[in-house]
Amino acid sequence: MTAMLNSAAADYSDLVEGIAAFVKRKVVPLEDANRELLENPRLAYDEKGGYSAPVLDLFRQVREASAEAGYYAMFAPEELGGAGLGALALFSVWEGLSHLVGPGRPLPDQVIGHWTSGPSFLLGEVDPSLHDSVVQEVMSGAATVCFGMSEPDAGSDAWSMSTRAVHVGDGWVLNGTKQWTSNAAHAKYAFIWAVTDEEMRRERTGGITLFLVPTDTPGFAVDSVLRLFEHVGGNETISSLTDVYIPDTHVVGTLHQGFALALQGVSNGRMYNAGHCVGMARWALEEANRYTGVRTAFGKTIADYQGVSFQLADSAMEIYASKTMSVDCARRLDRGEQARKELNMVKAYTTEACFRVFDRCMQVCGGMGLTNEMRFVSGWHFARMVRIADGTGEVMRRNIANSLRKGDLAF
C-alpha cells in the first residue's frame, strides 16, 4: 500500500483500482445490510435535519476501515502518517470513486478523507501539543472536523467576515456566525476563521486567523441545518459562537495569516469538485447510453434517433474536455505552478458541464430519467449545488477575466 501511494505513476490507476476493490469488499456489504436506513430519508436524518445516529455510525465504520487500509488519510501530510498526495491524485481518486458509485450513495464518500471534514493539509498546521489527541482522532477516522469560513454576509467575499477573536490572557474569545458549514452538526472539531487584526483585514494584507474549536466548547452551537432541494435533512449548517474561549494552543498556523490556509483549502475543493463532477458525468452517460440502447419507440431503439444520440455525443465531448483540462491543471499544480486562471476555468467548466450532462441524460431517458430508480435526479441536485460551492461560476469568470487583464494569456 505504501509503495502504491508513493508511486510517481502519472494516472494513479492502481490506486483507483485499489479504492474500487475496497468499496466492493467493505462498503457494499454495509449498504446491502442497511438499505432501508440509507434510502429512507426519514430514517437517515434525525428530527433536527442532521444525519441520524445509525447513519453516523456507518460513516464511522467506513472511515476507520479505510484509514486502516491506508486510503482515508491519503491527502494528509506525510509527517502525520498520511501520504501527502497532490492535485492529480486528488482529481483521479474522486473521479474514479464517483464514476464507480454514482450519486445518492453516501457511504462510499467516507472512504476518502474530504478536505472539509477529514484529514487534510490543515492538520499539519495544528499545534504539536494536539497531535496525540486531536490529530490522531481525525487521522484514524474516529472523529471528523468542519470548515467554518463562510458567513451570512461573507460568502464569495470572505474578507468581509465579521466573526471576531479577541486575545484574553492565555487564550482567545470568539464571537460570530458561520453559514454553509458542512458537517458541523456531526463534527468533533471545527476549523474557524476569525478576524484578529481589523486594520490588516481592511487592507486585505492579513488579520484573519484560523482556530481549532472543539464543538463541545461552551458557546459553540449549531443553530440549524440548511435543507436543500426540499430534502428532509442535509449536511450544511448555520453555527454560532458566543464568547467561545479556547487556549493559545488552538491557533492553527501563523497568527493573522489564516486566510492563505483558507485559499489553499478552497483550491483543493475546486480540484475535488472537478474530479467528482467528471466521475459523476461519466456514470450518467454510461447509464443513459445503456438505457437508450434497449428502450424502443416506433420500431427501433431510441438511441437510433439523432435527437437522442446527439445529446449523448454532446455529453461525451464535454466529459472529454472536462477531464483533459482537469488533468492538465492538476499536473501544473503538482509542478509547483500557481495555475490560478486554469483552476478557475476547471471549476467553472467541469461543474457546469456535469450539470448539462445530467440534464441531457434525464431528458433522453424520458419519464424514467425522473425516477429515483435511475438516480439521475440525485446527480442533478449534486451538479446544481457544486456550481455554487467553493466559488460560483460567476466568481470564477471574474477571476479568469482579472488574470487576462493582468496579461496572463498563456495556455
Automatic annotation (TrEMBL):
Residues 257-404 form the Acyl-CoA dehydrogenase/oxidase C-terminal domain. GO terms for molecular function: acyl-CoA dehydrogenase activity; flavin adenine dinucleotide binding. Its cofactor is FAD. InterPro entries: Acyl-CoA_dehydrogenase, Acyl-CoA_DH_CS, Acyl-CoA_Oxase/DH_mid-dom, Acyl-CoA_Oxase/DH_mid-dom_sf, AcylCo_DH-like_C, AcylCo_DH/oxidase_C, AcylCoA_DH/ox_N_sf, AcylCoA_DH/oxidase_NM_dom_sf. One of its GO terms (biological process) is fatty acid beta-oxidation using acyl-CoA dehydrogenase. Keywords: FAD, Flavoprotein, Oxidoreductase. It comes from the Bacteria. Pfam families: Acyl-CoA_dh_1, Acyl-CoA_dh_M. One of its GO terms (cellular component) is cytoplasm. Residues 146-224 form the Acyl-CoA oxidase/dehydrogenase middle domain. Signal peptide: none annotated. Belongs to the acyl-CoA dehydrogenase family. This is Medium-chain specific acyl-CoA dehydrogenase, mitochondrial.
